[in-house]
């Protein structure tokens, strides 16, 4: 069956209170020492509450719900991450890049252009609810899949 999204690199954010007797930590965002009462820890680095921001919309990630997403050295909130990277990938049928925003079909770990999602032997398109099969990373309709199984059975007998 068609599956939803593939897993994304979600990173947890911790809020820590600064111990008065420890040396102030440097902020990975602005490189200044953190002298506030609270600091954020994410990606093994320390941040001012104001400095851990989404690179796209500038929202403060410590407030949005204690997770961030990262890709290509960008730190992003969930919404922007999914908008930019959520559906991008290479089409498993034609191996061309699928631009973000474009609708895709997903099957297991593969993504496909809508136009490419068809039986790769007879080109039959699938509708929602239709059965399809994945064999050696090829999409097959039920007829071709079962035919393939029969041929394999035949080959096995001949040997
Ligand atoms: Zn800072
Ligand atoms: Zn954002
Ligand atoms: Zn394609
Ligand atoms: Zn077919």
What would your notes on this structure say?
This protein is α+β, with helices and mostly antiparallel strands and 159 residues long. It is built from three helices and twelve strands, in the order E-E-E-E-H-E-E-H-E-E-E-E-E-E-H. It has a three-stranded antiparallel β-sheet. The chain has a three-stranded antiparallel β-sheet with strand order 2-3-4, with no helix packed on it. A hairpin with a 6-residue loop joins strand 7 and strand 8. The longest helix is centred in the last third of the chain and has 17 residues. It is elongated. Bound molecules: zinc ion (ZN) (4 copies).
The proportion of strand residues reads: 25-35%
Radius of gyration: 24 Å
Compounds present? zinc ion
Sheet of most strands: 3 strands, antiparallel
> How many distinct beta strands?
12
Assembly context of the chains: single chain
Number of helices: 3
Straight-line distance between termini: 34 Å
**Could you say which overall geometry the principal axes of the C-alpha atoms support?**
elongated
């Amino acid at each position: 069956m068609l599956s939803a999204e593939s897993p994304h690199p979600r990173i947890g954010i911790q809020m820590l209170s600064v111990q008065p007797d420890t040396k102030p930590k440097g902020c990975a965002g602005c490189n200044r020492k953190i002298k506030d009462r609270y600091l954020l820890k994410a990606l093994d680095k320390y941040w001012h509450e104001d400095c851990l921001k989404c690179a796209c919309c500038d929202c403060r990630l410590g407030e949005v719900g204690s997770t961030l997403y990262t890709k290509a050295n960008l730190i992003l909130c969930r919404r922007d991450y999914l908008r930019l990277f959520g559906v991008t990938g290479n089409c498993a049928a034609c191996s061309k890049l699928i631009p973000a925003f474009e609708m895709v079909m997903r099957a297991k770990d593969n993504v496909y252009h809508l136009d490419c999602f068809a039986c790769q032997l007879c080109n039959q398109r699938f509708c929602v609810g239709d059965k399809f099969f994945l064999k050696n990373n090829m999409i097959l309709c039920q007829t071709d899949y079962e035919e393939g199984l029969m041929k394999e059975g035949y080959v096995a007998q001949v040997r």
